[in-house]
Amino acid sequence: MATEAKAEAEAALGYEQARDELIEVVRRLEAGGTTLEESLALWERGEELAKVCRRWLEGARARLDAALAREEHEEEAAAGED
């Protein structure tokens, strides 16, 4: 049940929101000064955010590929009508 809630929360994050939070996580890790436990928690959050960003980018790529394929198909159909 907790995994479902976590997945729903991640799905609700927009790309820009996840990216911005990931940038902040990386900044905090690079700055240092956190305990081992805090660093591990930040690392885990960063991994989750990176997955969210990757899913958004993969979805965008799929939409672009579909649009390009549709456009190519329409151009081929129009050329066949000539």
TrEMBL record:
SUPFAM superfamilies: XseB-like
EC numbers: 3.1.11.6
Catalysed reactions, semicolon-separated: Exonucleolytic cleavage in either 5'- to 3'- or 3'- to 5'-direction to yield nucleoside 5'-phosphates
This protein's UniProt keywords: Cytoplasm, Exonuclease, Hydrolase, Nuclease
Entry annotated with the keyword Transcription regulation: no
Subunit: Heterooligomer composed of large and small subunits.
Known function: Bidirectionally degrades single-stranded DNA into large acid-insoluble oligonucleotides, which are then degraded further into small acid-soluble oligonucleotides.
Family recorded in the similarity comment: Belongs to the XseB family.
Protein name (record): Exodeoxyribonuclease 7 small subunit
Annotated organism of origin: Streptomyces morookaense
